[in-house]
């Protein structure tokens, strides 16, 4: 896919002046894929004006029209899975196999959005609950908020955009999307496909540009009634401060924990935590970053874990053989290297990896990571996992909760009572029992506590956030 997507695409308003462009480069060799407009603040204002008009169009679309467009777009993406997968893989860090899975999930997300469009209902209300109100009846319903501003991250450049565009369209909203300037092509392709599926111009607009510049305009504009942000905590907090009185959906970071108890299925726990740690080179908000293994199983777990990590093939993202690609930039790989070096300098032990080659960073396993280093406190967002030995579930839960984040957690055990203790006591948005923290389906409620965010995505739950409740009461005339 070349420049043609940028030049030929009119319907969804690709905004940008002739001379300002953002080069989209393949992180594994820094080759130029194509350039997209770097919209100015003024161009974002223009786009917002048109998108505000699109909100009126969207609100008047019948449910069956929204459903048909979403299903048609899902059909088109399904037919073009390889095109979408190659786009995801080339502009981002995913291997082609990981990218195909994301493209297939995007199809599911759009189909779920189509189905949920018919379920945006309310309830009748018995107003005659007090004397004098016998002649009243009514109901409440859910109505579109209007224009939604969406800002999305680099790591799932297609499906996380679909998790905003799909529910927004299903609920009768217009949406203006500012994708990551590192991976904007998948968002452009998605919006183009929605237009090809029949979505009227102005209902889904993509504006490419730098977050701190055009994102600011988007966040502050009073015509935007909701900000749906997915990204890091720092940007999320900045947006929250600037947004003013708007609905906010914040899907932020985490440093997800998994607890493995003595009675766990060892092979299952190892396979799941290795995959959860190194999927997308660890650039996954749900990625397994901390594994707390009960002491009776620790040595066997660590040995099996390292044996599996050593089988990982790092290399060309587009090769079917590759298990893990690069980080999104060499700068990110250098940051990960610095964090690992800090931990080692402060007493951590290196069990595997710890080597960087350009934007590639080997799958890395540490233990004895001290509390007073960034790797222990922050979100690494890279292929680094820390193993910890714990005495029992009490210590595991205590340590898992000792984080400013709370997105999802995992626990491996055969003991139902211990599973329910984890479910009750883990301060997260989701607990995966006998699965790692990174398990997600697109229909489930998704979001975090503490610094991991506000609100929930997952199609039906995003629609709840993207609609307002309106109550109607009829005062019946006496005859
Ligand atoms: N919870 C989730 O669902 C989820 C999913 C994916 C990624 N993430 C998080 O996203 C982060 C990685 O993605 P990233 O590096 O693209 O995040 P990021 O915060 O650097 O950027 C995310 C988006 O925000 C924009 N942006 C940055 N600063 C902004 C500002 N001041 N105002 C407006 N927009 C701004 C960027 O241009 C980009 O489009 C990680 O922290 C990861 O955990 C969370
Ligand atoms: O990076 C965070 C994503 O939301 C996780 S998933 O790809 O949606 O499972």
From TrEMBL:
Keywords carried by this UniProt record: Oxidoreductase
Domain Aldehyde dehydrogenase, first and last residues per copy: 19-472
Keyword Oxidoreductase recorded: yes
InterPro entries according to UniProt: Ald_DH/histidinol_DH, Ald_DH_C, Ald_DH_N, Aldehyde_DH_dom, ALDH-related_metabolic_enz
SUPFAM superfamilies assigned to the protein according to its UniProt record, in alphabetical order: ALDH-like
Statement: the UniProt record of this protein carries the keyword Oxidoreductase: yes
Top-rank lineage group of the source organism: Bacteria
Gene3D superfamilies according to UniProt: Aldehyde Dehydrogenase, Chain A, domain 1 (3.40.605.10), Aldehyde Dehydrogenase, Chain A, domain 2 (3.40.309.10)
PANTHER family (UniProt xref): ALDEHYDE DEHYDROGENASE
Family: Belongs to the aldehyde dehydrogenase family.
Name under which the protein is recorded: Aldehyde dehydrogenase family protein
Naturally occurring in which organism (per UniProt): Salinithrix halophila
